Structure formats: structure tokens, C-alpha cells
Amino acid sequence: MADGRPAVIRARPWAVACFLLPALLLLGALVVYPIGYSLWRSLFDAPGTGFVGLDNYREMFANPAIRRALQNNLIWILVAPALATALGLIFAVLTERIRWSTAFKLVIFMPMAISMLAAGIIFRLVYEADPDRGVANAILVSVNDTFSEGAPWPDARPRPDSGLEPGPEESLVATEPAAVGEPALLPLVGVAPPRVADAGQAVEPEPAPDAVVGVVWLDFAPGGGGDPGVVDENERGLPGMVVEAVRDGTVIATATAGADGTFSLPAEADGAELRLAASNFAASFNGVDWLGPTLVTPAIIGSYVWMWAGFAMVLIAAGLAGVPREMLEAARVDGANEWQVFRRITVPLLAPVLAVVLVTLMINVLKIFDLVLIIAPGSTQPDANVLALQLYFSSFGTSPNQGLGSAIAVFLLLLVVPVMIFNIRRLRQERKG
């Protein structure tokens, strides 16, 4: 070349070596040596003294815990990068159409500033099973309660020798048949007094000559006192309790207790079986077991997408800024709607950027460790296990086997290599193009 640089490099190779030597030494110490040692260590037993060949690799695929980790890693690779990239694409496109796009991008990208440890702690609290503590279940319970009233008294239960016994499903059945002129007393306990604060004082109804009457009440007075099975002062009714009259397995009449717990059934209920319907006691919706065996992996993937969708959005938005606006406007002038413009023009032009984001996230999820360790409880951690976490447990757990751990590390490297080769080839094709 005219500036003489190739001649300088050929004339002074030692100068080039001096500049490259520090980088090569660091590369060898931090990358090449650990890879080589891990490969060598994977051929030895747990103490590192006996050569076992490929036995560690055979054990890796025979171990149920490692197979489960491999299965979860496959789910991570297929779901997490695609979902984060898709959300990043949607956010990048939509932010071009809102006034406060910079503020929106900042909010979406902000989780990237949080460490995996902090994000794991945050989402461990978000996924708490108790709706009073877990944000996710608090939202679900609030939405459910908006559209569903639920059972009025799910915690109510009969006293021993109260004249009530368990019936079909969750119902309670009176041991004595209904009788006109004889009030039915149906005492229950197990309801916290504050829940009946708005209920009226329970009242034992007067006998009626042409109806079956009775009362359902909380047989407990704050501060104690009173007699079991007797309506005492300061004992509250259980309004909304559904009482059924059943004859030969068929419900012939139904009544609902009022504010004072009293109810009235028609005279045809005389001699029928009195039953407190199962709908009175059905357990209320208390949220979803996010960290149970079934949902723990999707829940952790959700926290990962929350963190990395902003990363995808920023890269895709940078690529979107380079898309020629003339092409988009020309397509709109030709009659294409926004969906057609997005699908046939925007996405194809962003394909190189989408590939970069997708490949980067695929490599990233193969190394996922922190989120699974922190978010998954000990009881379901085996169900959420991934290879990087299993590597840690195998190498430094209660029964350490660094030979097996090194084999897992080598296997993880082999999983990353095809993705890296794909990325390198794509970059070379872009340079040639």
C-alpha cells in the first residue's frame, strides 16, 4: 500500500509480536488453558487420580438430574431468545410511533442495569404463593375477585356433635330431618370474627306452621362464653349461606340465609334432609403456584425476558434507524397496510440485526445460572435445573465430582460452538456482500 504499512509489518515482525504478546498471554491464561484443563480433567475420576476415559460423559447422559437439566436447557434455547427478540422487535417498532419514545425505551431497558442476583430476588418475591406478598398472585386474585364472588364461607366447619356431618363433595348434612314447626339449628365455627363483623346478631327463628325455618350462625362469641349449639348473645349469623332440602338425592327446595343467619323453606321440605351446599365452602381462588414443578421453568424464563427484552429492543431500534424510509412510504403509497409493511419490508430488512440478537441471546441462555439458583425453591430446583447450575452442583455440591463437572463444562462448550460458527459465517457473508 502507498502508506507503507505492510512493508513495516514485514520488516519488523518483532514489533507486531510485542504488541500481540500481552493479548495472547491473557487469551491463553483466561481462555485456552481453562478449556484445555477442563477437557483433560473430564477424563479423570472425582479425586483426579484415576483415568476413566469417557466414563464421565457416559454418566452425564445416564444421570436423570443432568438429563432433566439438558431438557430444560433445550426449552430455554427454543423459548427465551425467540420471545425476548420478538418483544424487542415489537417495542422497537412501536416506540417510533409514540411521543415519549426515549422515556419508554429507558423504562424497558432499565432492567439491564440490574444484576441477575437482584433480578432473581425481585422475582422470587413477585412469584410468592401468598397473594398478600406475591405481586403476580395478588394481581390474579384481584382480577378473579372482580369477576367471581367466590364461596361466602370457605373456612367454616361444624363443631363436634353439632348435628352436622360431611356430605357429598364439600357439603354438610344435618343428621336430623327438617320438620315444620321445629327450627333447625345449624352451628358452625372456623370463621374469623372480623369476617362476620358486618353480619347481624344471630336469631333463633320462631316456629312457623307452614314452613321449615332455621338459622345458620357462627357458634362462637368474641371473648368466649356461651353454650355450644345454642344461639347466644354476640354470636353472628352467616348471611349468604345456601341451604338445600334434599329428598331421595334430589334438591326440592333452596333457601339463602339472611343477615341474621335465618332461612325459610316451603312446607314441602318437611321430612327432607337439610344440606349446606358445597358452594358455601369451596376454597377461594388463591393464585397460581408459579414456583411449583409445572410452572417454575416458564416463570424463570419470564424473569429473563423481562431483563433482556430491553437489550433486544435497543439493538433492533438501532437497526431500524437505518431502514430507508422511502421504501416504507412507497409500500404504503402502493396500498400496503401496516401489517404488510411490517411483515414484508421491515422484518426482512432487519433480518441481520434480528440474527445478531437471537444468536447473542442463545449463547447467553446456555450460561444461565443465577436466576435458576435464586428463584427456584429448593423443593422444585431439580425441576428447574439447567446445565450451568448442574455443573456447579456436580463440581462443588455435597458430593463433589470435578471430573463429571468438567465433562458438563466441555459439553456446554460443544453446544455453544455451532452457534458461534453460524455467527462467524454470517458475519463473513455480510462482509462479502
Automatic annotation (TrEMBL):
User: Which keywords does this chain's UniProt record carry?
Assistant: Cell membrane, Membrane, Transmembrane, Transmembrane helix, Transport
**Which positions, given as ranges, span the membrane?**
14-35, 74-94, 106-127, 305-324, 345-366, 404-424
Which InterPro entries does the UniProt entry name for this protein?
A: MetI-like, MetI-like_sf, UgpAE/MalFG_permease
Annotated ABC transmembrane type-1 domain ranges read: 70-423
Its Gene Ontology cellular component terms are: plasma membrane
Give the residue ranges for region: Disordered.
150-174
Coiled-coil residue windows: none
Q: Where is the signal peptide?
A: none
One of the GO BP terms on file:
transmembrane transport
Name the PROSITE patterns on file: ABC_TM1 (PS50928)
The record's subcellular locations are: Cell membrane
Task: Name the predominant localization.
Answer: membrane
Respond yes or no to whether keyword Transferase is given for this record.
Answer: no
Q: Does the keyword Signal apply?
A: no
- Report the Pfam families cross-referenced here: BPD_transp_1
What membrane topology is annotated for this entry? Answer: Multi-pass membrane protein
Which family does the similarity line name? Belongs to the binding-protein-dependent transport system permease family.
Name this protein carries in UniProt: ABC transporter permease subunit
Source organism of this protein record: Streptomyces alkaliphilus
